[in-house]
Every structure is written in structure tokens, then in C-alpha cells.
């Protein structure tokens, strides 16, 4: 099959690489000329395990192409995927300008029956808007070409995106046209070899499913963060509570880790967008509003704990941050809790030494240039270099490489042996045996 994917970011590039891996011919289109030139040379714009190899190999085979020209991509194209960003608008709703711009352009270039797939996360009703602008473009051309619009939301997780795309839990296809459903079934057949993973439904139901999934996951995290806050006051160890409730099959172990808040390009944006949609419909979203509020508070938890321990004036103090990306396995810094924390520490007068296995280049753009010019924020090449002469280590992102650090060696190079564990990654008893003072999230341990 011939596929065109418009938007070559996390979702577009992973989808393109995976479809080409299954034998489809894929053209990835983006407005970012530099990104396209780099991709042609095998230079990827993002870090995602396993992706580089898929992109380079399939590009060599001629199955994966990159261009800035939608028109050239439209030649002999069966399916267009729209995978551009849907950033939050000022009122929290999803900004659809890029999606609709792409839809308008698709209407200008198609030359036979085409299926247009909304892969971006878009509010209920967007497929109708896409249909309208494509039709307007066709009308302007005096064309009576037929087309269908499908909602096919993406559920990949950054950090495991390739695997998620190649082995999805399910493939949601929202569509009213049997012709388009037939084509989508063919397209996804290679991903459904062991069982039929395609769930078909109405377009609006599919659009809503994506928001409901992300809101449910964000709710689990915020719920657990609230439990941690209550546990801390009660002298209860939330880690024991987590194990206790996770063993209940109705609850399960995933997404119930307390921590310093969720980030990324999806959960915060999608929860806020659903809040907006809900209010527009006259429904006050009590649960969702609390989920978002709890998460904002949670991103302040580490900064508050540090100030409780060291005082509000942090002048002269140096903190080592391990982990900058919003979660392990990605270089994505969007809405990362580390941003809130570092801004807070620097505002209180502290100096920050930071290390992340892959996100340091991305991190540079997230902070005021003055932080670097004045040496208030310094990035180090190894986690141990970042620790030298610091007053405390703050674990923010639970990369695997941080799981079992050499505490004894660390203690020797630090000014004070204090650890703030923003992800409850460590065993407090073991950390204390090495002479560290331990501060976790909702933890009560020892005596
Ligand atoms: P991204 O910002 O990484 O990539 C978007 C790409 O679209 C960029 O390369 C940009 O240059 C390009 N673009 C913008 N306007 C364009 C245009 N008119 N023509 C061609 N290209 C254009 O975004 P992303 O993280 O891949 O997310 C894309 C969508 O998928 C969003 O709606 C997001 O909510 C959703 N989504 C993201 C994830 C994720 O984990 N990142 C997972 C599921 C769904």
C-alpha cells in the first residue's frame, strides 16, 4: 500500500517507520526542511529506542521516503495520515490549526479516492471539520473526487513507541464508510497476526476514546499521588499501600506509582482539552479538574521538600538533578517535572548540576539562557560528575541507569549526603546504610 504521513514527529515518524517495516511504501511529509534533510541522511529528530535502525534500513530499501512536498507525496497515495501537533490553545482546548491546514492542503492535491486518517489526538467533532475543509478544497478545484475521513487515534508510549506500534493492544478505527474500513483492515493486517486487534466504531466514539484513555491513566497517577500525600501525614508508607492495592486484579500494578507528577506532550494537554470540551457541553468535569490540579501541586512537591529541609533561601546550595526528560526512554522535555523544579531552585538562589542520559540537548532550550550564562544550571556528561560538591541528589526521572548507583562512591564526592527520591526508586533502608538522609514521596520507613 502507498501511505503518506503528514507530520514527522514522535507519532508520524514512528508510524511511518513501522508501516514501511511491514512492507508498505511510506512518504513522510513535514514543513520542517531541516528535519527532512536530516532524515534523508539518517539523522533522527528524536530519541526513541529501536527507531533509528528501522528508519535507516527502510529508507535504504526505498520503502520510507522523506519530503516537504505534499503534492509529490500525493501521487498514487491510498491513505493520508494526519499526524501533526495539536498543542493546547489559550483556553486549554486543542489547537486544530495545523490539522485543518493539512486537511485543506490534502484536498488540493488528491487525485483519486483517498482515505484521510486523523492520527493526531483531536477533540470529538474534528473529523467532521476535516471533511468540511477537504470538501471545500475539492469544490474550489471543481472536483467530485470521493474521500473518507477516519479517526485512528494513536496509543504509543514514548520510550517504547516502536514496540507499541508494532504490537499494539488494540487498533481503534472510527469510521462510517465500509470502503474505508476495508482499507484500514488491510493496512493494519500485518499488526494483527495473532488476533484481530481492530475495534471499529463511529468516528466520534473513536475520537473520545483517545481522550478517555489518557484521562484514565492521568487519573490513576493523580489518585496515587494524593494517596502518597495522605500517607505522608499519617505516617504510612505509600509503597506498601501501592503493592497492596496493585495486587488486586481490579486495580493492577500499572500507573499507580507515586512521584513528582506526570508530564509529556499528551497527559497534561489531553486532560485539559477534555476539561474544556466538557465545560463547553455544560458538564462540570469534577474528577478531571482535580486530576489536573493534583498534578500541578505534585510538580511542586520536590521543591517544597527541599525548602523544608534547607530553608527558603537556597543561596550557596548546589543540587544535583538526575533525569530531565518527562519520563525514562525519551528525550522529550515537554511539561517535564524537572522544568518546574529547576526553575524553582534557581529562583530560590540555588545552583543546579544536572544529568540526563539523552535529554540534555533538548533541555538547553527549556531554560532561560541566563541560567547557563551565569552557571546557575550546568549540564554534566556523567551522573557522577554532576554529583561533585553538591548538597543533595534529587532523582526526578527513573532511568534504568539510576536504579543501582554506587552510593558509597557518591557519598564521598558530595558535600552533604542527602537524597530526594522523586520516584520512590530506592530502598530507604539501603540508602541510609550508606549514610544518606532519605526523602521520598509519601514514605514512612524504619523504626
Ligand atoms: P510532534 O510535535 O513531535 O510532531 C509534529 C510534527 O508535525 C512536527 O515535525 C511539525 O514540524 C509537523 N508539522 C506541523 N505542521 C505541519 C504541516 N502543516 N505540514 C506538515 N508537517 C507539519 O508531535 P507528536 O508528539 O508526534 O504528536 C502529534 C499528535 O499525536 C498530537 O496530536 C499528539 O497529541 C498525538 N499523540 C502523541 C503521542 C506522543 O507520545 N508524542 C502519542 C499519541 C498521540
TrEMBL record:
Q: State where NAD(+) binds.
A: 30, 35, 86, 121, 158, 269, 334
Q: Supply the alphabetized keyword list.
A: NAD, Oxidoreductase
GO terms assigned for molecular function? NAD binding; UDP-glucose 6-dehydrogenase activity
What is the reaction catalyzed?
A: UDP-alpha-D-glucose + 2 NAD(+) + H2O = UDP-alpha-D-glucuronate + 2 NADH + 3 H(+)
What PANTHER family does the record point to? UDP-GLUCOSE 6-DEHYDROGENASE TUAD (PTHR43750)
User: Which organism encodes this protein?
Assistant: Desulfocicer vacuolatum DSM 3385
Question: What region holds the UDP-glucose/GDP-mannose dehydrogenase C-terminal domain?
Answer: 320-428
Signal peptide (UniProt feature, chain positions): none
Question: Does this entry carry the keyword Glycoprotein?
Answer: no
- Quote the record's binding site residues for substrate: 155-158, 210, 255-259, 263, 327
One matching Pfam family, short form?
UDPG_MGDP_dh_C
Q: Which family does it belong to?
A: Belongs to the UDP-glucose/GDP-mannose dehydrogenase family.
Q: What protein does this entry describe?
A: UDP-glucose 6-dehydrogenase
Amino acid at each position: 500500500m502507498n501511505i503518506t504521513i503528514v507530520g514527522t514527529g514522535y507519532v508520524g515518524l514512528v508510524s511511518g517507520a513501522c508501516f514501511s517495516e511491514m512492507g508498505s511504501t511510506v512518504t513522510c511529509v513535514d514543513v520542517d526542511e531541516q528535519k527532512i534533510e536530516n532524515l534523508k541522511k539518517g539523522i533522527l529528530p528524536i530519541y526513541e529506542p529501536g527507531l533509528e535502525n528501522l528508519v535507516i534500513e527502510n529508507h535504504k530499501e526505498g520503502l520510507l521516503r522523506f519530503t516537504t512536498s505534499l503534492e509529490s507525496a500525493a501521487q498514487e497515495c491510498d491513505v493520508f495520515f494526519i499526524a501533526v501537533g495539536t498543542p493546547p490553545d489559550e483556553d486549554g482546548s486543542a489547537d486544530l490549526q495545523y490539522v485543518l491546514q493539512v486537511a485543506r492542503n490534502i484536498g488540493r492535491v488528491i487525485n483519486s479516492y483517498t482515505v484521510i486518517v486523523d492520527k493526531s489526538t483531536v477533540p470529538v467533532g474534528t473529523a467532521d471539520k476535516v471533511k468540511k475543509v477537504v470538501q471545500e478544497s475539492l469544490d474550489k478545484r471543481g472536483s467530485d473526487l470521493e474521500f473518507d475521513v477516519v479517526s485512528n487515534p494513536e496509543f504509543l508510549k514514548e520510550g517504547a513507541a516502536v514496540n507499541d506500534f508494532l504490537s499494539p493492544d488494540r487498533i481503534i478505527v472510527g469510521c462510517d464508510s465500509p470502503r474505508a474500513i476495508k482499507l484500514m483492515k488491510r493496512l493494519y493486517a500485518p499488526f494483527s497476526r495473532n488476533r484481530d486487534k481492530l475495534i471499529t466504531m463511529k468516528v466520534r466514539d473513536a475520537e473520545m476514546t483517545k481522550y478517555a484513555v489518557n484521562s484514565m491513566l492521568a487519573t490513576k497517577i493523580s489518585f496515587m499521588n494524593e494517596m502518597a500525600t495522605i500517607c505522608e501525614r499519617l505516617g504510612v508508607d505509600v509503597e506498601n499501600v501501592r503493592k497492596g492495592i496493585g495486587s488486586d486484579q481490579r486495580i493492577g500494578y500499572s500507573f499507580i506509582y507515586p512521584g513528582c507528577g506526570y508530564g509529556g506532550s499528551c497527559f497534561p494537554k489531553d486532560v485539559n482539552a477534555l476539561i474544556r470540551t466538557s465545560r463547553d457541553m455544560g458538564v462540570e468535569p469534577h474528577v478531571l479538574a482535580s486530576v489536573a490540579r493534583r498534578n500541578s501541586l505534585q510538580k511542586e512537591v520536590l521543591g517544597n521538600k527541599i525548602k523544608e529541609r534547607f530553608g527558603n533561601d537556597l543561596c550557596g546550595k548546589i543540587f544535583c538533578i538526575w533525569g530531565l526528560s518527562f519520563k525514562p526512554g525519551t528525550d522529550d522535555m515537554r511539561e517535564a517535572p524537572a522544568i518546574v523544579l529547576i526553575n524553582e531552585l534557581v529562583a530560590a538562589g540555588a545552583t543546579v548540576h544536572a544529568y540526563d542520559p539523552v535529554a540534555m540537548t533538548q533541555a538547553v532550550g527549556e531554560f532561560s539562557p541566563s541560567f547557563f550564562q551565569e552557571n546557575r544550571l550546568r549540564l554534566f556528561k556523567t551522573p557522577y560528575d554532576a554529583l561533585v560538591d553538591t548538597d543533595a541528589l534529587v532523582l526526578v526521572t527513573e532511568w534504568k541507569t539510576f536504579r543501582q548507583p554506587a552510593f558509597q562512591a557518591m557519598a564521598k564526592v558530595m558535600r552533604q549526603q542527602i537524597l530526594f527520591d522523586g520516584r520512590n526508586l530506592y530502598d530507604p533502608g539501603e540508602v541510609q546504610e550508606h549514610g544518606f538522609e532519605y526523602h521520598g514521596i509519601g514514605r514512612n520507613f524504619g523504626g
